Each structure stands twice: as C-alpha cells, then as structure tokens.
Amino acid sequence: MSEAILLSSPDALVQVAQRGAVRVLTLNRPSALNSFTHAMHVELRAALQAVAADAGVRAVLITGAGRGFCAGQDLNDPAMMPGADGTPDIGAVIENNYRPLVLQLQALPVPVVCAVNGVAAGAGANFALCCDVVLAARSASFIQAFSRIGLIPDCGGTWLLPRLVGRARALALALTGDKLSAADAERFGMIWQVVDDAELQAQALAVADKLAALPSKALVETRHALDAAQSLTLADALSLEARVQGELGRAHDFGEGVAAFQHKRAAVFKDR
Ligand code: T3D
C-alpha cells in the first residue's frame, strides 16, 4: 500500500492526501460529525478542482474523520441565519454550495469512491450516494433527515434516491427520516458494499487503487452514459452508446487495452 502524503494542513476542514494515484479527501469537522459549513464547502470545491486539474490523480476516495461521515448541513452555520426578511435563505445555500458540489462530482474526470465511516445524514447521505462506488462500515447508517426539520431531500437526493432504491423505498425513507443501517442500504441497492468497520479504509482504498489502474476516461463516460440513459429512449441510448464508443475507440486507452491483451501484459492507461 502506498504511503499517504499529506497535501493540506492536518487541521484543514477537508484534509487532502495522496496515496499513489488516489487523492484522499477527508471531511474534517469531527466534533460536529463533519457537517457542512460554507467554509467546508469552499475547501471541498477547491480540492475537487485540484483533482480535475491534476493528471496524476486517477481516482478519489472520500471519507470522514471521527465517528461520523457527514451530518449534512451544519445547522449552526451563520449561513443558516435569518436574512434581511427574517427567514433563512436556504435556496441560496443550495444554489451556492450543494448544487455546484453535485455537478462537480458528476463532471469529475476520475472515478470517486466513498468510504462511509459512520452516520451520513441529510445532505451528507446524498453527498455519499452521489459518489461512483460507495462502501460503508457495518456500523454506519444513512438518514434522510430533511423531513425532521421541514425540508425536502437535497444534494441530488430527489433525483438519485428513487433511481437507486425505487420510488416506494425512496419516498418512505424521505418521509419518515428513519435511520437505515449500512446492511439494509446494501440490501436495498443504495450502496455497493458494507464491510467490517476495521476493514473499511483498506477496502475502499483497494477499490480506488483498482479503479485508478483502469482507463479513467472510459469509466467516467460510463458514469455519464448510465445517468443520461435514465431519461433516454432505448433507441436514443443505443445511439449514445455508438457515439461514445466511437470516440473511445479512437482514443489511446482502447488501443493500449487491446495491445496489452494481445501481448499478455499489463495495460498502462493515460486518457482522462
Ligand atoms: O441551509 C440549509 O439547511 C440547506 C441545506 C440542507 C441540507 C441538510 O443537510 S438538512 C439536514 C441537516 N442535518 C440534520 O438535520 C442532522 C442533524 N443531526 C442529527 O440528527 C444527529 O446528530 C445524527 C442523527 C446525525 C447523529 O446523532 P448522534 O446521537 O450520533 O450524535 P449527536 O450527539 O446528535 O451529534 C454529535 C455532535 O455533532 C453534537 O454536538 P455536541 O452536542 O457534541 O457539541 C451535535 O450537535 C453535532 N451535530 C450533529 N449534526 C449536526 C451537528 N451540528 C451542527 N449541524 C448538524 N447537522
């Protein structure tokens, strides 16, 4: 296993480290279960921008410090405080922070693995689910906490949840705000895998390492094609497959993959 090289200050709100080709981002406000403040959003956006700009990064691993993954919006953050008319402008918080975050994840040129190390609530749960491959510690849990405070699921939850688990389960989870265990999240198809707590970081890193060695561009085009196909007819999805496959077929990585297969050697992919 590669050594971690810390690229941020150890007390950054989003700790940034590099392990081989994997950029590890750790939400780092453990005393408030890594809930999102405006300042943490700013650091996270910058960290994801740095990933996009660095050709040496071929996968991202996101996790949380301490006993929680992320408890959603920090309900004590000044951004929650009343605006001029006396009511909080939550729409602006979503537009300025959560919407860009989800779109940034969706557009990221490398795969994203999430290691959910503890409770993931509200926007924290949906942030995790926006990642490409989600592993969770057996002790972790997912809570659509929004209904408890008079809100609807955000951070992509309305789009993603029904697609992951179906409308019946999505709606019941969102309406009740009930806690879902990691094991049930796996059983529902909400996440990829539940693993023993002690194994979480190593297993998530192993998945990230594996993805980092695969052709990044093809992996990311797979993410985009699966998402796009949700709103396409079969005929249009087939056309999209033909167009993207045509582009990938002309790229370096396809030639390299085929040559490596033919010569029985490991492929070295480089497209992003
Ligand atoms: O502006 C906007 O609101 C727009 C965006 C909305 C998106 C959202 O995410 S809305 C949903 C916001 N999140 C929540 O409502 C969850 C609130 N937290 C909880 O319900 C519970 O903390 C948990 C179920 C997640 C975990 O419970 P438990 O018993 O394991 O921990 P705890 O004791 O409640 O929390 C530990 C500490 O973290 C505690 O601080 P203390 O007392 O030790 O100083 C607690 O106040 C703090 N904490 C937990 N969640 C948040 C938080 N502090 C601020 N904001 C939080 N969301």
Commentary on this structure:
Helix content is 44%, strand content 17%. The protein is built from ten helices and eleven strands. The protein folds into two domains: 5-212, 2-enoyl-CoA Hydratase, Chain A, domain 1 (Alpha-Beta Complex); 216-262, Lyase 2-enoyl-coa Hydratase, Chain  A, domain 2. The protein is α/β, with parallel strands linked by helices. The radius of gyration is 19 Å and the shape is globular. The protein has helices spanning 38-53, 90-107, 123-129, 157-165, 167-176, 182-187, 200-212, 216-229, 234-249, 252-262; strands at 4-6, 14-19, 22-27, 59-64, 68-70, 112-116, 119-121, 133-137, 141-143, 179-181, 193-195. Strands 1-2-3-4-6-8-11 form a seven-stranded mixed sheet, sandwiched between helices. It has a four-stranded mixed sheet with strand order 5-7-9-10.
